[in-house]
């Protein structure tokens, strides 16, 4: 059921994006700097693009910047998780070694039963 809701949402989103794109095909001039600043510095980069590409490009750029920002912000949490995972593996090896040492003189069947618990 959730799969159909997700597909329905994506279909509606796709239709909206296509209709907005078709409605905003006119060309717009993008400039790197305002005219006054470009006159002062002596250069300016400019290009003409359809308006829908400018809008959708801005959305994509915002998403990429947001994801990158979150990934950098969560670095300490990933580092802590890695340290804890390493510590757990070390402790599991130590417990296994201690159980093996404890069961050295016992019968094999009793040692297996003790190890399983």
Automatic annotation (TrEMBL):
The chain crosses the membrane at residues 49-69. Residues 81-108 form a coiled coil. InterPro entries: LapA_dom. Keywords: Cell membrane, Coiled coil, Membrane, Transmembrane, Transmembrane helix. Residues 24-95 form the Lipopolysaccharide assembly protein A domain. Pfam families: LapA_dom. GO terms for cellular component: plasma membrane. This is Lipopolysaccharide assembly protein A domain-containing protein. It comes from Ruegeria arenilitoris.
């Amino acid at each position: 059921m959730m799969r159909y809701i997700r597909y329905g949402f994506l279909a509606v989103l796709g239709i909206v994006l296509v209709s907005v794109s078709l409605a905003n095909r006119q060309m717009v001039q993008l400039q790197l700097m305002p005219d006054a600043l470009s006159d002062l510095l002596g250069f300016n980069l400019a290009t003409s693009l359809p308006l829908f590409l400018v809008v959708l490009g801005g959305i994509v750029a915002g998403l990429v910047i947001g994801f990158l920002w979150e990934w950098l912000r969560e670095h300490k949490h990933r580092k802590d998780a890695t340290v804890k995972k390493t510590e757990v593996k070390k402790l599991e090896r130590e417990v296994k070694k201690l159980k093996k040492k404890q069961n050295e003189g016992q019968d094999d069947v009793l040692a297996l039963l003790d190890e399983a618990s």
